[in-house]
Amino acid sequence: MTHPRVIALAPTWNAASFIDKTLDSLAAQTYPNLSILVSDDCSTDGTAAICVARAQQDDRFKLVQQPRNLGWVGNANALLRMAEERADYLLFAWHDDLLAPSYVERLVARLEANRNAVIAFSDLSLTHLDGRQEIQIYDELTDQHSAFLRAKSLAWQIGKWWAPVRGVFRAEAARQIGGLKAHGGGEFCADWPWMLRMATLGEFERVPETLCFKFFKSASLSKKWQYNMKAYRSVTFSAAKEVRASNLSLKEKLWLHLSLARQQFKHERNARRA
Questions:
Q1: Which of 47, 53, 187, 247 is the most exposed place for a label (fewest CB within 10 A)?
Q2: What predicted TM-score, i.e. pTM, was given to this entire model?
Q3: Pairing of the two strands 203-215 and 97-99
C-alpha cells in the first residue's frame, strides 16, 4: 500500500526548554510516510543544537538554519516553499505543541476519505501559563459543504477557529494560498486570513478526539502580540485581500467584506468599552 507523503513543518526559535518534547512527539508518530523539516530562525539558545542532534539520530528529521531572523511568518513560509512541491500533505508542528502518536495517521485517513476536504484537525488541549487546562473544540464547520458559509464563519471568527491551524492540510492548498501574510500590524493573528482563505478552498474535517496538546509559554508568540486597533485593522485588511483572491462569486465576496467590517466594528466597540 502506498501512503501519501506527509511533511511536518517545524519553525523554531528560542525553544530549547521545550523543543525536545515536541520532537519526541513527532518521532513517535505512527504514520509510515512522514518526514520532519525543521527551520531554526537564528535561535540564541540551544534550540539549533538540539535539532542538529535529533537529525543525526533520526533520518526522518532535516534541519535548516536560517542565515538571518525571518520572524514567525517568514520562517513558516520558508518551510512551505521547501516542502509544498515534495509532499501530498503538510502540517505545522509548532514548537510549543505536542501531538498524540496517532495524530498524523488519523488526520490523513480523514482527508483520504473525503477528497473535498482541504484540512483535517483534532480537538485541542490547552495548558495556560498558570497550569489551568481546557479542551478547545471547533465544530462550527462540521458537515458544512458551502465555501461561502465556511468563509463567513471564519470572517466572524466564530468558535475556536485557531484549532485547525494545527491540522494536516493539502499541499495544493498551500500553493494556492501562497503562504501566510505579514501586514501593517506585523505578524499579529496572521493565521486568521490563512484559515479564512483555506475555508474557501475546501471542507474542514474534525476528528473528535483530543490529539493535540498546546502549552502556553511566557515567550509564546501570541503572548507577545500587541492587541490594539492598528493590529486588528491591519489583519482585517489582510483577510479582505484573501477574500478578493478567492474563487468565490462577486456577490459572496461583497458579503464577506461586510462580515469583516462587522468584525472590525465589534473589535472597535469592545476597545472603546475597555
A1: 247
A2: 0.93
A3: antiparallel
